[in-house]
Amino acid sequence: MNRQRSFIGFIVAGAIAVLVIAIAGFYWFFGKSPANLIGSTSQPSAAIFVSKLSPVMVSLQANPDRLQALEREEELSKLKTSLFAKSGIDYKQDIQPWLGDEITLAITTLDIDRDLENGQQTGYLLALATKQPEKSREFVELLFSKRALAGANLAVEQYKGVKLIYDNSQPEQDLFAGAVVGEGFVLFANDPKVLRDAINNVQAPDLNLTSSLEYQKATKQLPKGGLAVAFLNVPIVAKWQGLELPEQLYNSQIISLALNPKGLLAETTFLTSSEIVPTSVPLSKPVGALQYIPASAGLAISGSNLSNLSNSDLAKLWRQATATIYGSEEDVVSRLAKPLVDIQKRWGINLPEDIFSWVQGEYAIALLPEKEQTNPHWIFVVEKSEGVEQGVARLDAIASSNGLSINPLTIDKQKISAWTELITATKKSDAKEGASFSIETKVRGLHTTLGNYEIFTSDLETIDEILTIKDNSIIDNPNFQDSIAAIPLPNQGYIYLDWTKSQNFLERQVPILKLVEVLGKPFFNNLRSLTVSSYGTETRSLKGGVFFKLHNS
């Protein structure tokens, strides 16, 4: 069996560094103040053990027990129990007394023995800060003695002044190694070579992550009081996934997780050696186009200037990120933006060329999901500017070329242009008389002018809702207001997702999401909405954030 695959137990145990981060967000349900949950203001100390060629490092910079008191359904207690149940370890007795304020999990190397003939064997390192070295040494001895009683063949080695304990097992069996380094950390790895490399990284500082100029630039972007941080070496992550990036603009990414009185803010910065030019002038307030988006919207995207979107640095980031994660930009677009893909196919249009190219002012795009319908209603609002009139005329021409009629309508004294199609409906009748037919008019889209905006919708019900919106627009929605309040100004606009309204629709588009929800059930059960934005003014980095708003926060 491949050693990477056989080391499932260690990977699960290491996942506490990630899972506990999500659990941290649950404190808002209990009316607790985040003041006593402020994390470290510095970079992870365990970075000295990690190679600067490491693809990923994730650190929790707070003791899990500081989150324990904030539980309602004992998610963290259950997690700890399940992690150590098979090992015979009691967390409260054996770990809690010495565990410090940092847990770091890193992918240290893509191939431990650098031998491609026996497959890629990824190296994993888990570093736990200790506040009582002697007690942590006792724990390591206890852990391995229990493994010996279970039949493991142990070996002890002194390496550069550090005592290593590990299974001296055959490659097809589980490998496990541990050590207490100095007065600060307990290390576990899936191979003793990973521990030796970690010790080498400390004693030869030019080898470890803290010596990386890219990492140094990234950590300067960290906000104060972050609860957790993740660093990704983007090209190596792509190599780890076996992918060749068609376009590499960004070299590294750093993500921080911080508590907010209204929710949880994940802030990320992508760094590049190229100069970044914003697609449009940053916005100091939400765009006026949002006043025409109903509060019932499940998804709302707003900003300004779509004309240069395809050549923007944000678009380049999208292409690089989707290639890294999915291997294909088209695949993820076809899944997550299926309604837009369907519109393009049905009408025979190219969104960037036929629509985005003439949107130079404000815009807002929204989807209004309904449980009974597979395809949600849609809204597109664009500010009147040079080229909009010609753009609308072009869409009318495309509709006409697709066999649709352009008919004027009036709803509550508002003049509307409707793209309609005549279809034949068959009704059952007496066999002697034969079938009867009727002709029905189907509305395929509408557009109208309100104030300084041109508004496009999918159906009559939606445009009627817009005309009677009054004070029930998304911009007046308290949940939306709370969400965008957590995003710094100025910025490039917002992507706002109401999870409670969009969950069913998203699960139909992305079936694997159901599995993710099962794994992160406490988080998703309490998720109210998420808001994404891009901001920051530095020329060699792209900064943005995702704000998670939870129920009752």
How does this structure look, described?
The chain has 553 residues and is an alpha+beta fold. It has two domains: 3-24 and 41-50 and 57-211, no CATH class; 274-550, no CATH class. Helix content is 31%, strand content 28%. It has helices spanning 3-6, 8-14, 16-24, 65-68, 75-84, 91-95, 133-149, 192-203, 213-219, 234-240, 313-325, 329-336, 338-347, 351-355, 388-401, 460-467, 478-485, 499-509, 512-519, 521-526, and strands at 56-60, 99-109, 123-130, 154-159, 162-167, 177-181, 185-189, 228-233, 252-260, 263-271, 299-304, 362-368, 377-383, 405-411, 414-427, 436-450, 453-457, 494-498, 527-535, 541-550. It has a 20-stranded antiparallel beta sheet, sandwiched between helices. A hairpin with a 2-residue loop joins strand 9 and strand 10. The longest helix has 17 residues, at 133-149. The two termini are 47 Å apart. Residues 1-37, 69-73 and 325-336 have low confidence and may be disordered.
Q: Report Rg.
A: 28 Å
Strand-pairing-aware structural class: alpha+beta
End-to-end distance, in Å? 47 Å
Q: Main beta sheet, described?
A: 20 strands, antiparallel
Tally of individual domains: 2
Q: How many distinct beta strands?
A: 20
Q: What percent of the residues sit in helical stretches (DSSP H or I)?
A: 25-40%
Strand content: 25-35%
Uncertain stretches of 5 or more adjacent residues: 1-37, 69-73, 325-336
Instruction: Name the shape in a single word.
Output: elongated
- Provide a count of the helices: 20
Mean pLDDT: 77
